[in-house]
Write a structure and sequence with these properties.
This protein is α+β, with helices and mostly antiparallel strands. Among the domains are: about 140 residues, Methyltransferase, Cobalt-precorrin-4 Transmethylase, Domain 2 (2-Layer Sandwich); about 80 residues. The protein is about 35% helix and about 20% strand. The chain contains 16 helices and 21 strands. The strands form seven sheets. A six-stranded mixed sheet has the order 12-11-15-16-18-17, with helices on one face.
Length: about 475
């Protein structure tokens, strides 16, 4: 690094990634900033520059100065192998600028502390890191060590476990080929140990969450359910709260959906088959995922299910696993459950699939039933999955609708699909954004991509929007419609 590089660095004001100190006399405060850089986006710590005027003054550097910096850096945990650069300031009688660069924090990495206290950056200021954030990062870094579901359930004994629930789940696991037949004759204690629901002969939180009779000591084992009039939360039609184990909450959620969603039916053979306006298997998968993968560390948070006139939203406390976002969750991915013990038991008993296939399965079910595929949104501490209801046809428009459908079908059969349009159809077997489609086609014009490729396919009934109610949604995606 040269003095020219320093001049460029300090030309702008202090920021989230730059802090200026006049001398190493401010070393202690500077190490708080170093810790904050390591827990945020990284940054440069520069000594020998005035923070207000940005004058490059430099300072005298002796062996004692270097030893002080080394001792200060040793207060950072875990160990940081920081490179310290000394740059001579021209015409300053040998004074030097001292520059240290710290790498950004990567999700899943351990959080840093300085003399036992963590710090992070809020814009250009250094702040003590909130306890919840520090604990959350520790758990992500060492999930097995700090996992809520593997901790001992204090005060709970074997008689607090619902044996009928355990036996019923085991029978499903055996019939599904995921548990050995011998599991059906094992005693309850042996079963719980084999499913890793006991530690040192004591029940774990996962055992109570899955099979507990009394969950009063677990306020987070709660499902909030509401049905609203219209598309906002202004007027309640129904409002319920259910406490209990996983199976009780799942049953309560499904029952609430049956109470407030429309049923449609068709005659198959001699039987009438009925389904909800949002396919039941997709709702069950989404609710199972929310109950399984939520963060249970916060007893004040709970899973919620909200029914609106145009959609259903299921919200759970927590964040996506590392590497998963609302943009790529519908692409093929590995399974990284937040609560590994709970997820493993639900997989063994056929309530959950492995290998991250649940989201694609929900999409496939919705497409098959002619319902928009679900969309995800990640907030600061919650994840929301939204199922939008299919638009209802107006009775008086049936003739017009049939005419349009026939016209579209004839137009589709006569229309020659271009190579690029066929590539889009093949590419969008899972929801894709416009930018992903552009990248796949190797084009850069957003407007041309939509008008020349996407819109014609939508008009032909070969492509649909994941959020048709809001075509200009910046998170809009597109998915192919299978030919009938």
């Amino acid at each position: 690094m040269t003095i020219k590089d320093i001049e460029k660095l300090v030309a702008s004001d202090e920021s989230r990634t730059l802090e200026l100190k006049k001398t190493t006399g401010e070393l202690k405060d500077a190490m708080h900033t170093a810790c904050a850089f390591l827990n945020s986006d990284g940054g440069w710590l520069i000594f020998g520059v005035t923070p207000t005027s940005h004058r490059i003054l430099g300072q005298d550097v002796t062996d004692n100065t270097k030893q002080e910096i080394a001792r200060a850096l040793s207060g950072l945990e875990p160990f940081v192998d920081a490179v310290v650069e000394y740059i001579v300031v021209p015409e300053s009688n040998g004074k030097q600028v001292i520059a240290l660069h710290f790498e950004e924090w990567v999700r899943g990495g351990t959080p840093y502390t300085y003399h036992g206290s963590p710090y992070y950056k809020v814009e250009s200021t250094t702040q003590p890191m909130p306890r919840y954030m520090f604990e959350e990062r520790l758990k992500e870094h060492s999930p097995f060590k700090f996992a809520w579901d593997s901790q001992i359930a204090e005060g709970y004994k074997m008689e607090d476990i619902d044996e009928n629930r355990v036996r019923g789940a085991v029978r499903l696991g055996v019939s599904g080929g995921r548990l050995n037949a011998s599991a059906e004759i094992d005693d309850i204690s042996s079963l719980l140990k084999k499913m890793k629901l006991m530690k040192d002969d004591k029940l774990t939180n996962a055992a109570v969450m899955l099979f507990g009779k009394n969950t009063d000591n677990y306020p987070q084992l709660l499902l909030r359910m509401a049905c609203f009039k219209g598309t906002d939360k202004n007027i309640f039609i129904d409002n319920k709260r259910e406490s209990g184990n996983f199976f009780e909450l799942l049953d309560a959620g499904i029952a609430f959906c049956f109470r407030h969603l429309n049923l449609s039916g068709e005659i198959i053979g001699l039987q009438r088959k009925e389904d909800l306006e949002i396919p039941l298997p997709a709702l069950r998968e989404a609710l199972t995922n929310a109950l399984c993968h939520r963060s249970y560390d916060d007893p004040s948070a709970s899973v919620s299910l909200a029914v609106y006139s145009d959609r259903i939203e299921i919200v759970n406390p927590g964040r996506f696993p590392i590497g998963i976002t609302s943009e790529n969750i519908m692409l093929p991915h590995e399974s990284f459950p937040h609560n590994q013990t709970i997820a493993h038991v639900l997989y063994q008993t056929t309530f959950l699939e492995s290998w991250g296939s649940g989201v694609k399965r929900m999409c496939d079910i919705c497409i098959e039933k002619g319902v928009p595929v679900p969309t995800y949104h990640e907030g600061s501490r919650t994840i929301t999955i939204c199922f939008r209801k299919a638009k209802k046809e107006i009775a008086g428009d049936n003739h017009q609708s049939n005419h349009q459908s026939n016209h579209q079908s004839n137009h589709q059969s006569n229309h020659q699909i271009s190579d690029n349009q066929q590539r889009i159809i093949d590419f969008c077997t899972v929801p894709r954004s416009s930018s992903e489609i552009m990248e796949m086609l190797g084009i850069s014009n957003q407007s041309k991509n939509r008008q020349s490729h996407i819109v014609p396919l939508i008009e032909l009934g070969l492509l649909q929007m994941t959020n048709p109610e809001n075509p200009k949604d910046r998170n809009q995606k597109y998915i192919s419609i299978p030919k009938v």
